[in-house]
Design a protein that fits this description.
Blueprint (H helix, E strand, L loop, with lengths): L4 H5 L3 H11 L1 E8 L2 E8 L2 E8 L4 E9 L7
Antiparallel strand pairs: 1-2, 2-3, 3-4
Amino acid sequence: MDISYYEFTNLPDEMQFDIVLRQGKMINESTVSNSRYVLYELSSFSVEIIYSLSKNKIAGKNIFLNRAAYSA
């Protein structure tokens, strides 16, 4: 399933997390204080999922449009 940045951002959070975890390619991971940051790549954008280590759950996300995908 190839989804655009705009289609993805209009989905509910639960669906976004599901798509990222099932179809995203993990490209980076780091831990800072009590949070784990995992960056996933999907088609023309990337999604960073922030995990709370103390609560053992997803704490948030950031979505980045990969503008290089549109350059010639």
